[in-house]
């Protein structure tokens, strides 16, 4: 069937297929068969029916089966409310809960609530441990200018290692995260170039001592002493900070490419992810250790995302008077005719490219465990939230969540 529409300067012709042609007839037959399968499944295999409904909804063709779906879900709701209903596995329970809630059924979330309270309790114990560790370390008193935000730093660990069973790993991971922030503040705000050179040697020894404690725990649990790798990562970080300090002291910023090569190291991501690799304790052997020491793409792409996000100027939480260089500044000095917005767009494109690289690494064969790969991805996912201190409405909920976790602890700055 063909028809046309003419209205003013607009005209269009359409051809509607006959409902009696072969594709339409085959479509009607398939819809009828699927409806029969759904109807026949209703009282036999609950999980199969739930999966079928979920599949139909994801394909966007569930509107063909409204009556069958309504009847099936109503049966599921009645059976679920009965004390004699047959239990499903975790996947089935979760799927049934979502589909019933989605259609407006009142289904108890008691299990989810209990699980949430258990996880909250675990996180609160972790926060108490971190608060005590940070207080005993004494850096907040000695370095008045540095950030004093152990709870915020622990949010990284909570978001990256989400498995409740990884409580010890989260606590240990927060320690290097905290120290990365402190070193950043010291190099950004404290001392002359000569002072920083002396500090670099001293701080290397300090963090070597701190890594001994973490290394001992890893060796006891996983049978591998990572102290050489951890110390190497700290030295590389401090050297990168010192290189930046030399640039700013001389007043001569490097080319943007050189800045970024150094900046992905000074981001601290490598230090944190090396610690995390050993704390997870999965797939540790000479090959993977050499690989992680060598700044592999899965780490460098994550570090690139953090460095460039930070350099876009969205991290306004620091309240610092120091002078940080940035990729944006280096790029605009090299290309003075480029507008700020054009330069920012270039940085956003680099972030997009780094994300593509990270996604490729996560989807490709890798010597790393799935847990480590997912944790690297989680770091990148958290960056826009942790480094977007403008009008981002999600920050209000983040602060509220942090306060709720620390409700029983003494007040901490955010």
TrEMBL record:
GO terms for biological process: hydrocarbon metabolic process; terpenoid biosynthetic process. The keyword 4Fe-4S does not apply. Its cofactor is Mg(2+). Gene3D superfamilies: Farnesyl Diphosphate Synthase, Terpene synthase, N-terminal domain. Residues 135-204, 207-357 form the Terpene synthase metal-binding domain. InterPro entries: Isoprenoid_synthase_dom_sf, Terpene_cyclase-like_1_C, Terpene_synth_N, Terpene_synth_N_sf, Terpene_synthase-like, Terpene_synthase_metal-bd, Terpenoid_cyclase/PrenylTrfase. It comes from the Eukaryota. GO terms for molecular function: magnesium ion binding; terpene synthase activity. Residues 38-110 form the Terpene synthase N-terminal domain. The keyword Magnesium applies. Keywords: Lyase, Magnesium, Metal-binding. This is Uncharacterized protein. The lineage of its organism: Eukaryota, Viridiplantae, Streptophyta, Embryophyta, Tracheophyta.
């Amino acid at each position: 069937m063909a028809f046309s529409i003419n209205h003013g300067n607009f005209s269009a012709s359409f051809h509607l297929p006959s409902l009696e042609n072969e594709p339409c007839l085959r479509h009607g037959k398939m819809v009828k068969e699927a409806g029969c399968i759904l109807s026949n499944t209703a009282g036999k295999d609950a999980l199969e029916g739930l999966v079928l409904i979920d599949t139909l909804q994801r394909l966007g063709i569930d509107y063909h089966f409204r009556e069958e779906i309504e009847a099936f879900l109503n049966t599921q709701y009645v059976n679920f409310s009965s004390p004699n209903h047959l239990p499903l596995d975790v996947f089935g329970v979760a799927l049934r809960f979502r589909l019933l809630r989605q259609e407006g059924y009142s289904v108890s979330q008691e299990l989810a609530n209990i699980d949430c309270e258990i996880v909250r309790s675990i996180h609160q114990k972790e926060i108490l441990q971190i608060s005590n560790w940070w207080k005993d370390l004494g850096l907040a008193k000695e370095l008045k200018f540095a950030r004093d935000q152990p709870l915020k730093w622990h949010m990284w660990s909570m978001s990256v290692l989400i498995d409740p069973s990884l409580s010890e790993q989260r606590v240990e991971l927060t320690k290097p995260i905290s120290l990365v922030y402190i070193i950043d503040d010291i190099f950004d705000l404290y001392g002359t170039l000569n002072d920083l050179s002396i500090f670099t040697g001293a701080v290397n020894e300090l963090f070597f001592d701190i890594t001994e404690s973490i290394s001992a725990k890893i060796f006891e649990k996983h049978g591998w002493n990572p102290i050489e790798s951890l110390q190497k990562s700290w030295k590389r970080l401090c050297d990168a900070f010192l290189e930046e300090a030399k640039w700013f002291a001389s007043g001569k910023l490097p080319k943007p490419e050189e800045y970024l090569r150094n900046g992905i190291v000074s981001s601290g991501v490598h230090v944190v992810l090396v610690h995390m690799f050993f704390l997870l304790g999965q797939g540790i052997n000479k090959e993977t250790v050499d690989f992680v020491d060598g700044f592999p793409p899965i780490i460098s792409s994550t570090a690139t995302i953090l460095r460039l996000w930070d350099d876009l100027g969205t991290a306004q939480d620091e309240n610092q008077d120091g002078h940080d260089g940035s990729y944006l500044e280096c790029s605009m000095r090299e290309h003075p005719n480029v507008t700020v917005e054009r330069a920012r767009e270039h940085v956003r494109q680099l972030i997009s490219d780094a994300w593509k690289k990270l996604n490729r690494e996560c989807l490709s064969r890798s010597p790393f465990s799935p847990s480590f790969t997912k944790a690297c991805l989680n770091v990148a996912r958290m960056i826009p939230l942790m480094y977007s201190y403008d009008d981002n409405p999600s920050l209000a909920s983040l602060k509220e969540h942090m306060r709720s976790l620390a409700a029983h602890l003494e007040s901490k700055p955010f």
